[in-house]
Amino acid sequence: MTVLTSARQAHYTRTVAAQSHLMNGPDAYADALLDIVRQLAAECALPPGAWYDLNTRARHAGRQVLRYRASLDQFPVFGREGHALPLGRAVQHTGEIDAANPLEQVWLFGAPANSLDGFTQARIEADGEGGFTLRASPGVEVVRFGA
After folding, report:
1. Within a 10 A sphere around the Cβ of 143, how many other Cβ atoms?
2. N- to C-terminal Cα distance for the chain?
3. 4-80, CATH topology level
4. Which of 17, 21, 95, 101 has its CA 20 to 30 A from that of 89?
């Protein structure tokens, strides 16, 4: 289980004063909704690495502060380049999850650079030549950001 943690960590020097930034594991970053509600803008201090904006699909270098403008129905969320985000269908409770086929989509941020396992419907595996290959069942939609 991934736990939301504050991005205020020693190696994220730009976020020291910004306790409202959230990391969902090492690969997903979200900024505080409260800042946006107050002013319809937020400053997003991106951690190291490249990041894809889930709203605009734009790629941003890490270790920088973005001035992010958004409407009330969206907020800054970024996916780390080289990683994947497996998504299932919306459910009201965990009892509604189809254990045999939990995935509906896999979002890829740039070219795969890390393995993804634990799902029979989609896997990212090392190809033996220094790269990675995505294998997805026909019922899983693959959404690509960049690459």
Report:
1. 14
2. 29
3. Immunoglobulin-like (2.60.40)
4. 21
Structure tokens at 41: 């803008």
Across the range 50-72, mean pLDDT stands at: 91
Sole residue written with tokens 């634990």: 118
Burial 40-58 (b: 16+ CB within 10 A, else e): eebbbbbbebbbbbbeeee
Residue type, 131: G
Contact between 130 and 111 under an 8 Å Cβ cutoff? The reply is no
Per-domain boundaries in the chain: 4-80, 84-145
Spatial separation of the C-alpha atoms in residues 1 and 55, rounded to whole Å: 25
Query: What are residue 118's phi and psi, to 5 degrees?
Result: 105, -5
* pTM of the predicted structure, to 2 decimals: 0.73
